[in-house]
Amino acid sequence: MSAPVYLFTGPEAGKRNDAVQAVKDSLKKKYGQIEEYLFYASESAAAEYMAVLQNESLFASASCVVVKNADFIKKKDEIEMITDWISSVKSDSSVLVLVSDEISVDSKIEKAVPSANQKKFWEMFENQKLPWLKNFFSGNGYSIEEDAAALILEMIENNTEALKNECSRFFVCFQKEHRITPDDVESVLAHTREEDAYSLFNAMAAYPEEPRVRLEKSLDILQKIRLSKDNASVGILARLTFCFRNLVLWQKLSAAGTADDFNLKINGFSSLAKKQLYGRAARIWSSGQAVAVLSLIAAADMSIRSGGSLLEDVLLQKLLYEIIMKKGAASASYEISD
Predict the structure, then answer these.
(1) Which domains does the chain have, with CATH numbers?
(2) CA-to-CA dists, residue 242 to 122, 235, 236, 249, angstroms
(3) Which residue, 97, 220, 244, 253, is the most exposed by fewest CB within 10 angstroms?
């Protein structure tokens, strides 16, 4: 019996989520009712989700534990806990699915997961995105002008999950057979789209805008995120960590002279929008400064986890100040003048 563990990595969230659902569907087909659990490795200790796997379910014949942000699993004891379970598990009624936006996770975990149960999900090539978008609209009874499709692709992160979620808004606003125009895109997406940590990083990296302008815009976006449903500090910090890790990787590829289309794609930089974003970011932060920023984010995460929610917003605002105004240098305090 192959160990009941799966590893799905890469930036293409839509197809990756489909793979996770396929695992759940297969388990349901075999066992009937199952219990489903979702954890984030950036928030939960391995002991929490491994306890679920090691204890039989009281209410269902099987269980599926999905752990996102699996690239955060770094501690030796947590890695050993997972790999020991993989090597010793006797039943396939408890399934572990490890998920990450990154291309890879810790090598010991990768070696423990059967190769047949691992898959990397890459972003679409540039020449695939426009046809995919047109097919998505036509499949739902709509058509779309090419300029409108291009505008959507500029505004939305390059993965099919984000595209599906955002473009589904048009189906609420317009009758079927409507042809989507650039004006429709502006009215539906530009003015109603919720901010997220990805749009926050875009604002932080908006070269050649002045640092103070970028800071003010970033603080405004941060406030909107904190007022939204996806307002958890740890989630914001996890996404910023992902972005600055990507920036360090971009800097390494550029320094080594290997930033060609092939190497950029296999490292998650396939879309034109992402290349432009990290090209701008690289003009603001050097590789060393990006590493320093990662240390600041980790310190902020630790402070928020240990100090509770009282000072969360202050710590997040201070972090943005240190990243944008100080380029990764820590500061005792910050002040924004009028």
Answers:
(1) 5-120 (3.40.50.300), 126-190 (1.10.8.60), 197-324 (1.20.272.10)
(2) 16, 11, 10, 11
(3) 220
The residue type at 334:
Y
Model confidence pTM above 0.90: no
What are 138-191's pLDDT values in tens digits?
Answer: 999 999 999 999 888 877 877 888 899 889 999 999 999 999 999 999 888 866
Question: Which whole-number Å values give the CA distances from 236 to 54, 83, 102, 163, 295, in the listed order?
Answer: 31, 29, 16, 20, 15
pLDDT at residue 309 in the model: 65
**How far apart, in whole angstroms, are the C-alpha atoms of residue 136 and residue 134?**
5
* pLDDT value of residue 337: 44
Q: Which residues of the chain register pLDDT less than 70?
A: 57-58, 190-193, 308-309, 332-338
- Give CB contacts under 8 A, 24+ apart, made by 283-289: 283/207, 283/208, 284/205, 284/207, 284/327, 285/244, 285/247, 285/327, 285/328, 286/251, 287/248, 287/251, 287/252, 287/255, 288/328, 289/327, 289/328
pLDDT tens digits, 16-29: 999 999 999 999 99
DSSP element (H, E) containing 179: strand 179-180
